[in-house]
From TrEMBL:
Residues 1-18 form the signal peptide. InterPro entries: 3D_dom (IPR010611), MltA (IPR026044), MltA_B (IPR005300). This is peptidoglycan lytic exotransglycosylase. The keyword Nucleotide-binding does not apply.
Length: 415
């Protein structure tokens, strides 16, 4: 569901793995212990990229380092929320099918012992070698207003009515078509939709699309990267907004561009450092932001919290964004990584999470974006997170049994 699907993780969107190059490996306690009978991952010839094509290994909970001592209770609550849609979703990873989740979801309704529930209902699987890369995202809070004022006048738009999805010739595959976003004029002629520069220049002004206004264009730019956030209103109230659509134009990470320009000093390649550069160079900064042609449209949200791609509220330090080609949305994931805390001290992190979101920059095997919630702590940690780690995905037992059967048949075919 297109709620936060185009929210891009901070560090990847900014400078794509650059910080990872200086990261050391995890401490010994953060590793995944492989089974003693180490067999190569099963690689199935697939026409598309998915977990099967990447190779996978079914293991046991005894093989997962740190599992017995971990707190898994918050993940049970998050998983119960995922059951609202996980049983109705296709699984591009091809590790499971939607009906496989019916039994775990039924058992989750009355589960009181979280660890016993997960161990009875799921089988751990390691995709590829389980080596993960983890960034962070958060729910930003910026100053805003419902009606424009002289110091609060940066429009926040709802999706425009002329933003359409139509079948158009695929520029990368001659003779084929693909579903593309854009606009179609009265003569039926298709064109790309307005980019960020055009929208900032007023392409959507005076059309009644404004749902609110922000005080600061730079803060709104970064809120768009996150895909959802809070507006702190003049009367002390809070308006929550979330992803509603996107203009279909390409995303360009301005952090990467700043690194290419050698504009950032060592240690400045973070959200906070990029914002400082933009404020110190307003004209160049505005032009740089316009290089990112992607533009996010919002809707006002009410209820429990920001919504992930499943239409489910995401939970701080429990919800993950991931690539659904490799991790089924709704699946529990035992994640081991590390992060810099508010005091800039590297801190181990090992916890059972739930895949409930996606992101435009969250692509590939064992690629995760960890949701930290809202507030100053969440902003600081998410803005500095770019760590290696390890991941073990939990899939329903019926899914694992099907995979075992297919593996046995494949082994017979090889004889």
């Amino acid at each position: 569901m297109p709620r936060c699907v185009l929210r891009l993780s901070l560090l990847t969107a900014f400078f794509v793995l650059a910080a990872c190059a200086s990261r050391t490996s995890l401490p010994p306690s953060g590793s995944v212990t492989q089974p003693t009978s180490a067999v190569p991952p099963v690689v199935v010839q697939e026409p598309e990229e998915n977990a099967r094509a990447a190779g996978f290994r079914l293991v046991t909970f005894a093989d997962v380092a740190g599992w017995p001592a971990s707190d898994v209770t918050p993940a049970l609550t998050a998983f119960q929320k995922s059951c609202r849609s996980v049983t109705r979703r296709p699984d591009p990873s091809r590790l499971a099918i939607s009906d496989d989740w019916l039994a775990p979801c039924a058992a989750a309704k009355s589960a009181t012992d979280a660890r016993a529930f997960f161990e009875a209902s799921f089988t751990p699987v390691i995709v590829a070698e389980g080596d993960a890369f983890v960034t962070g995202y958060y729910e930003p809070e910026i100053e805003g207003c419902r009606q424009p004022t002289p110091d609060c006048n940066v429009p926040i738009y709802a999706p425009p009515e002329d933003l359409t999805r139509t079948e158009q010739p695929d520029p990368e595959n001659p003779g084929r078509t693909k579903l593309m976003k854009g606009m179609v004029d009265a003569n039926g002629v298709y064109s790309l939709y307005h980019d960020r520069a055009a929208i900032d220049a007023g392409a959507l002004a005076k059309r009644g699309l404004e749902i609110a206004y922000a005080k600061d264009a730079i803060e709104l730019f970064f809120l768009q990267i996150q895909g959802s956030g809070r507006l702190r209103l003049p009367d002390g109230g809070v308006m929550r907004i979330g992803y509603a659509d996107q203009n279909g134009r390409e995303y360009v990470g301005i952090g990467r561009r700043l690194r290419e320009m050698d504009a950032l000093a060592p240690g400045e390649a973070s959200m906070q450092g990029i914002m400082r550069w933009l404020r110190a160079n307003p004209d160049r900064g505005r032009a740089l932001m316009h290089e990112n042609k992607s533009y996010i449209f919002f809707q006002e949200l009410t209820g429990e919290g920001p919504l992930g791609a499943m239409g489910t509220p995401v939970t701080p330090e429990v919800s993950l964004a991931t690539d659904p080609r490799y991790v089924p949305l709704g699946a529990p994931v035992f994640l081991t990584t590390e992060y810099l805390n508010e005091s800039r001290v590297m801190t181990p992190f090992q916890k059972l999470m739930v895949a409930q979101d996606t992101g435009g920059a969250i692509k590939g095997t064992n690629r995760f974006d960890l949701f930290w919630g809202a507030g100053a702590r969440a902003r600081t940690i998410a803005g500095g997170l770019a760590s290696k780690g390890s991941a073990v995905i939990l899939i329903p037992n019926v899914s694992a049994n099907r995979l075992r059967s297919e593996m046995r048949l494949a082994a017979l075919d090889l004889r």
